[in-house]
Design brief:
The chain is α+β, with helices and mostly antiparallel strands. The chain is about 50% helix and about 10% strand. The protein contains eight helices and four strands; from the N terminus they run E-H-E-H-E-E-H-H-H-H-H-H. The radius of gyration is 17 Å and the shape is globular.
Length: about 210
């Protein structure tokens, strides 16, 4: 890989998930911290991500936004790491299924639930209230991996997200979810990513 990876982030954002994924790849990357309300909405950054949000990843002329897409893209760059199952395998199907389940119905349900705007089940991709939590709990019960028998980017995405949502109270703590998060949160790449972001976050904490 010859093109430079440039990572746009803020330590108090969902960019923390993307950094964990970057650390798992072992690839070198440049970091650009953009700040809420100022540089994150500047013309320079809007040229990278018109949404004015982080994270974003630039790889040469390619720009990837959204954590699920960033995880999938980075996994493809390092096939030797096994962060995505082989093309055409049953495990690859499970990888896509749960990655997009979490980024789609789960996130949509969580946003609607937290704002009191749940849509009628007949028109909502997340179905009846509670369907997504029950489905995810069934998928994770007594399992350490969502796609095969080894760690992949979908495990990272789900573990990081569930850990954050339980920490903030967006979803209730659940023994099945806690076990899954705990199994993956101790990975060396997760620790390295957290250390970097925690050091950066210190300058943004109120005094």
């Amino acid at each position: 890989m010859t093109a430079t990876l440039t990572f746009y982030t803020h330590p108090l954002s969902r960019g923390r998930l993307a950094r964990w994924m970057l650390e798992e790849t072992g690839l070198p990357y440049e970091e650009v911290v953009v700040e809420f309300g100022t540089t994150m909405k500047s013309p320079d950054y809007l040229a990278v991500n018109p949404m004015g949000k982080v994270p974003a990843l630039r790889h040469g002329e390619v720009v990837v936004t959204e954590n699920a897409a960033i995880c999938a893209y980075l996994a493809e760059l390092v096939p030797e790491k096994g962060l995505v199952p082989p093309p055409g395998s049953p495990e690859r199907g499970a990888f896509y299924r749960w990655l997009f389940f979490f980024a789609g119905p789960f996130e949509a349900w969580l946003t609607a639930k937290s704002t009191g705007t749940l849509a009628p089940a007949v028109g909502a991709g997340y179905g009846e209230d509670g369907d997504v939590l029950r489905t995810l709990e069934q998928a994770l019960r007594d399992r350490r991996h969502l796609a095969g028998n080894g760690f992949t980017a979908v495990d990272l995405y789900v573990a990081a997200s569930l850990g954050y949502f339980m920490m903030t109270g967006a979803i209730a703590k659940n023994p099945v979810f806690e076990a899954f998060v705990a199994h993956h949160a101790g990975r060396p790449a997760a620790a390295a990513a957290n250390a970097r972001d925690n050091a950066l976050a210190a300058k943004y904490q109120p005094t």
